[in-house]
Known about the structure:
By secondary structure, this protein is an alpha/beta fold. It has a single domain (2-113), classed as STAS domain (Transcription Regulator spoIIAA, 2-Layer Sandwich), CATH 3.30.750.24. Helix content is 40%, strand content 18%. Helix 2 (52-67) links the parallel strand 3 (39-43) and strand 4. Helix 1 (20-33) packs parallel to helix 2 (52-67).
Amino acid sequence: MSTEDLSSEVVLVVLPAEPELRDELEVVNEKIANGDDRDLIIDFSRVEILASSSISSLMILHSLMSERGRRLILCNVGLPTKGIFNVVGLREFFDFADDKFDALAKLGIPSETSKT
Length: 116
């Protein structure tokens, strides 16, 4: 997992593939639970499949972010992975963006002011 501060209010997390994905999502959940108070963009470009434990961790993360009034946006989600969200009925639960620039636009942050 790699992280990048895109602005003072937004962090980008690039997730690894399974089986490391679940453990990395737990690390992200711990950081948010311990007070990291920024919007979060999660890049799925390396993710090909989601295990049920990873979906559960994403739902927990979504709840943590909502409790803090922060946004969680998933980007670079491939069609097979989006299909998993559809099958389990969570497509409408999460906010999706094409890439990090689209995610920044959804957050109202111009991409030219962010670190790239």
